[in-house]
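1st attempt posting a full record on here, be nice pls
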Amino acid sequence: AYLSMESKEAKEKQLSLDELEAAEAQVSSQVMGLDLGSELDINMEDIDFSEVDDDLKKFQEDEIVRDALQRGVDLGNYARQIHAQLAATEAASIKDYLKESADVSGLHEEIKACDSVLERMEHMLTRFQADLGAISSEIKHLQDKSMSMRIKLKNRKAVHKDLDAHIKSIFISPELVRCIHEAEIKESYIGYLADLDVKIQYLKQLQKEGKLDKASRDMAPLCERTKVKAIARIRQFLLQRVYLLKKPQTNIQIKQNLLLRFKYLYQFCRLHAPSTADEIRNIYTDTVRKIYNNHFKQYLLGLMKLQAPIVAKKGDVLGLDETKTGGMFSMRKTSLHLSRVFMLGNRDTILSNIDKPPIIYHSAAKRHTQFRYNEIFRATHRLLMDTATTESAFLSDFFQEADAYRGEDQKERKASAKRGTALFDTIFSKTTSMFLENLENYLMKCFDCLELLILVRIVLLHSQMMRQRQTDCLDSLFDRINMLLWPRFKVVLDAHLASIRTVRVSSVSRGNTSVHYISRRYAEFAAGIDVLNRGYDDAIIVSNMGRMRTAVCKLLTDLSGRIGGEKGSTVFLINNYDAILKVFDDKNLVSEAAKAFRELMHTQVAKYVEMELGDKFQKLIGFVQSSEEKISEAVERKQKLPALDLQTAGDIIRSFANGWKTQVAQIDKQVNSHFGSSSQNPETAYQASEILKQILIQLVLYYQRLQDVIKKCHRRPPGFMKDLVPIPTIMHEIKKFGAK
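the predicted structure (as tokens):
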């Protein structure tokens, strides 16, 4: 590297010197060639100034020339000076070359040697490059060959994989054939069927696509024979399990759970032998239909033998007069019997115990226990609900799921659901018909509205229970039962309403202010209906009970007109309203009927209070009312308050002071005679005391109003005011009556 650098510098110096010498020689020749002394013959047209312009531009661009021109230097002298400097530089350069000639010669030899070495290196590298090119082409060839081999391997693997899958899908091993033909049917047998099903489906798909090869065609007959054998064994196995259900004392639910473990067997039949699957399903439905129908028939007939006698008979209506019952072929109906007919009692407890398990017939028969029809109805339908729930779940899991497995679209699945519903109806149709027939027979003899409404509520609660179980298999049965119960309820209720309207006024004797039988019956009946309708608020019931309340009120008003006297009619209405409200209060009713009768009661009590006070304190009340009217007129006309009749006012005050205690005692005696004392009738004693209290309070208010009108009209108290009885004294006596 050092030698090459030295050689390069020497060459550059040599070139510089040669250029300088050549330039100097050119300038000298040009200067020497000028003939300044000769006569100048210059033709301006022959001169080409284009080159001169170019030279001038170059001189202007040259820094040295431009600097000399700017300083005004003589160019001739400047040229000679430059020539002298060039000559001196040339001489010095020659001396340097001569001085360094030996070194330059050695350097030249070294450069030649280096050139030789570099030439050999160049030849060697050229050969190496040629070898590398050959290796690169060989590597590329190997890469192409490797890529081709890789693609071939990948294709062969893909072909091997598909071929292996194809062979495995169509090949039926002797072991599989043996297991299908001879192995015991248990859970492991399902795996053999699943393998066979895969092969059958694969062959069907190939046949459908027209891709059957020779191997597939060879295996198809063996596959078909194996399938036929499997279906035959499945049919025999499932039918044996179905026939086991017929054994006495068999728990069907346990047997169904065992069948569910083998539901894939039915699915296999449904896919590959639909006719065989239909046969199995039909035999199963026919078998369990007979079993269930027989069981429920025995259970229902057994419980009906334990049914308690029906209390309500034909003609037991609210308006029935017990004095006119009985005849040649019938017994006289007592008031106790009729009160039981319209009394709810504890019959509504069945609704709070709706979740109780069904009645065990054998235990009840041993104890000779009797049951009302609503209890038998609840027990039989609860057993039917439990059975229907488990059976519906089994049908859905075993049969309907297989149908859905067979279907490929949503329409097929909906059709499968409809078939499941039809399958359930096939099994339970005779049982539900038997239940409906039993209910119809009972309804023909039922004249008890409360019992009918209890049955309606039982059906509603059972329907809610089935919705909680997320099954609707019995919805049609519940609808049909309601279609039987509601019309019958309406017929019996209308009969009660019609009987109320046909009650004769002559059924009440004159002067008899005691409670009429229609009031007690209606109160018990309406209270029972309201209890059973609480929380449901059926519009039909509310409307019909409103009509009945109107009819009862009208009847009581008509009956009160026969008692005789306005006070007697009022006492009669108070006693009947009070009897009705007592029953309502015992049941804690807040219905519209309770509100209506309470308002009627208050109206009649206020009327009775005014009547009693009018009999004993007529002058006092008349004087107060007339005086208040005069004062009111004067205030409206803005006139002076009128002067009262002090003579009359004094007589009233003195008369009251002398006899008010006696008159209050007479009122007490009169109230007790109208409404009964605690010794005569404990039920009405409280009402009598309340009425007496209202009378005395109203008396105090009238007495206070008397004092107020006197004070308003006369600023100076009249002399008779000293005879006034103090209000605290009157209140003290009232408390005595209240304690009594």
